[in-house]
Amino acid sequence: MNVNNQDDDLYNQPTEPRRKLDVTGRPVGASGMGNSGGMRAAPVAARPGPTPQATPTGPVSGQVIPPTPYPQQGQKQAGRPVSRRKLLGAALLGMAGLGAVGVAGGVALNLAENGGFASLFHSAASNAQTGHLLRRAGFGASPAEMQMYKSLGFEGAVDRLLNYQQVSDDALESRLKALNLNLNRPTDQQRWWLLRMAWTQRPLLEKMTLFWHGVLTSSFRKVGGKNFFMRMINQNQFLRAHAFDTFDNILLGITADPAMLFYLDLTKSRKNHPNENYARELMELFTLGLGHYTQQDVSEGAAALTGWHVDGLTSRYIPADHNNLTKHYLGQTGNFDYRDVVRILTNHPATPWFLARKLFTFFVYENPSTDDLKPLVDSYVESGHNMGAVMRTLLLSPQFSSQKAYRARIKSPTEFVAGAYRALELQGSGLALPTMTTLMGQALFDPPNVAGWPGDKVSALWLNSGTWMTRLNYIDLLLVRSGATGKEQAQPLDLQSVVNANRIDSPEKFVDYYASFLLDGALDSDRRSLLVDYFSTPDVSRGGGQVTLTSGKSYPLNRVRGTLYLMMASPEYQLN
Question: How many H-runs (helices) and E-runs (strands) does the chain carry?
Fold first, then answer.
């Protein structure tokens, strides 16, 4: 997608407006909308590229799924060679036929039936516990990272993730600088961030930045035009710098952020004619949720938020342009400005529950109970709204390390793309990464609307037949070309070096090595046998090279590479 050649109107689309509320806080019909101070009824224009909205409860019309599943446990495939197509069939049927939610539940159920959680999650940090932490609080890990975090113990690993300032990321900054990316181009912005996630030594910091990006949304498509795309990078850097700050400071900063000011129309708000867009979304989507405010609160909040102007990449608050009338806002009265709005919202009793639900759903599992959320709410209040304290409570909670949380969410496109790149320790330029996440349904710096990505709330929405096949194609691209596109020189993943460095002397040890950090070592014996059989089956195709194990025995590169492909195409690997 060459965004620089599109019409300017594409970058100034309206965000989807919320309906007005009556005095009880209930939405009113279109006939009652009236003048909303700049609210626009036009929906967001259609975007190029697929958006995965279909709930993956089964095959959809026209969907082609290879018919051959994995054999059931104990079932033999006598007399027939093991093929990649046969093994892949099970993954396709598992994800598309059973549905993503069913697969997530099935992984947990399988572990429970085999006593897996008693052995996988114990007081000393295990592969499963460490892998779970690094997927949820980051983007997975390489083998070396797994061992380093595992050696710290679970609480020590959480401390390292939260105290990121003690970990240098200078090497990352140098590598990104060497790429000479144009950060005023959306695709380079996306590549810059995806590579940050893949290469950073501060994974939780990047994961929190991604969380805030999906909550306090803005898009390059409505940021002031092609000359001001850099506003999105500046906003991203603000969210990173304040990821664990107080919620008060985060809201104060995002209210003054030029990208947000433009995206939700505060640049159009005047003291005699306030624009209500930001005031409404600030309460509905950023702090309180529906049912906790009225239309009067929207109007009065909009008046209190007047006075902001954008000048290039900076913003200015001009008191003379602020509405100085007395306002009645969420039960309080005064000549309020934006600071008062933030103070009232962050201290509102609904806010910690709203924010805790967002965090818990993103980092732990969906549909949390009141009991699940109460410790996070208490931490928010007791810490003075400090998000670092709330995240420590979340990561150390029993729910985070519970059977219910393990592999309970589908990886988002960003998690899948950055995570695979990170796990395989790829060092390319990442030119194909933005295309891959977009085709999978998540274009960074471009959420579908002000409500963010639906998959952040219901992770099953990330998968449909099209996005699933894109995931498989991405894995193939990584293994064959290390993620390079036709514009780059292909550098296949050097499996021979991996074998040599880790002294892998048998197909079993190859499978176990990659399973240890890709699948937490949780690979049942039948599945392991199938992968070993596939690895060991002679390859009838010509050419393709060989990989020699340290035992001296050689195997076809296609089979070695194909074994890794099948592991990364498995249902378990799609789950976070």
Answer: 27, 6
User: In whole angstroms, what is the distance from residue 460 CA to residue 412 CA?
Assistant: 9
Burial of 525 (0-12, 13-18, 19+ CB in 10 A): exposed
Mark residue 529 as left, alpha or beta (left: phi above 0; alpha: psi -120 to 50; beta: remaining): alpha
Which band of pLDDT confidence, cut at 50, 70 and 90, is reported for residue 100?
very low
What is the rounded distance in angstroms from the CA atom of residue 154 to the CA atom of residue 394?
13
pLDDT in tens, 382-426: 999 999 999 999 999 999 999 999 999 999 999 999 999 999 999
Q: Which pLDDT tens digit goes with each residue over 359-372?
A: 999 999 999 999 99
CA distances from 356 to 123, 247, 347, 381 (A): 26, 12, 14, 11
Summarize pLDDT for 140-165 with one digit per residue, the tens: 999 999 999 999 999 999 999 999 99
C-alpha–C-alpha distance, residues 210 and 222, integer Å: 19
- Local structure of 443: helix, strand or coil: coil
Structure tokens at 389: 């304290």
CA distances from 39 to 23, 45, 47, 336 (A): 18, 16, 21, 22
Token pair in block for residue 91: 């993954």
Give yes or no for residue 235 having a pLDDT over 90: yes
Mean pLDDT of 69-88: 48
- The SS3 of residue 179 is coil
The strand pair at 314-317 and 332-334 is best described as unpaired
The pTM score is 0.84
> How far is it, in rounded angstroms, from Cα 442 to Cα 93?
24
Task: Report how far residue 480's alpha carbon sits from residue 457's, in angstroms, rounded to the nearest whole number.
Answer: 34
**CA distance to 51, 484, 564, per residue, from 477 (Å):** 22, 7, 13
Closest by alpha carbon to 513, among 483, 500, 199? 500
Instruction: Find out whether 359 and 334 touch, Cβ atoms under 8 Å.
Output: no
Residue 126: band (very low, low, confident or very high) from pLDDT cuts 50, 70, 90: confident
Provide CB contacts within 8 A for 144, sequence distance 6+.
none
Q: Tokens 């993943």 — which residue?
A: 493
Dihedral of CA atoms 133, 137, 138, 140 in degrees, nearest 10, equals: 20
What secondary structure does DSSP assign to 253-311, as a single string? HHHT-HHHHHHTTGGG-BTTB---HHHHHHHHTTTS-TTS--HHHHHHHHHHT--EEEE
Nearest of 133, 145, 114 to residue 522 by alpha carbon: 114
Torsion angles phi and psi, residue 54, rounded to 5: -70, 130
Contact of 372 with 399, CB cutoff 8 Å: yes
3-state secondary structure 202-254: CHHHHHHHHHHHHHCCCCCCECCCHHHCHHHHHHHHHHHHCCCCEHHHHHHHH
Task: Kindly write down the DSSP assignment for every residue of 13-70, as one continuous string.
Answer: PPPPPPPPB-TTS-B--GGG----SS---PPPPPPSS----S--SSPPTT------PP
pLDDT over 90, % of the chain:
73
Q: How far is CA 262 from CA 41, 341, 477, in A?
A: 17, 19, 38
DSSP structural state of residue 570 = S
Measured distance CA(538)–CA(506) in Å, rounded: 15
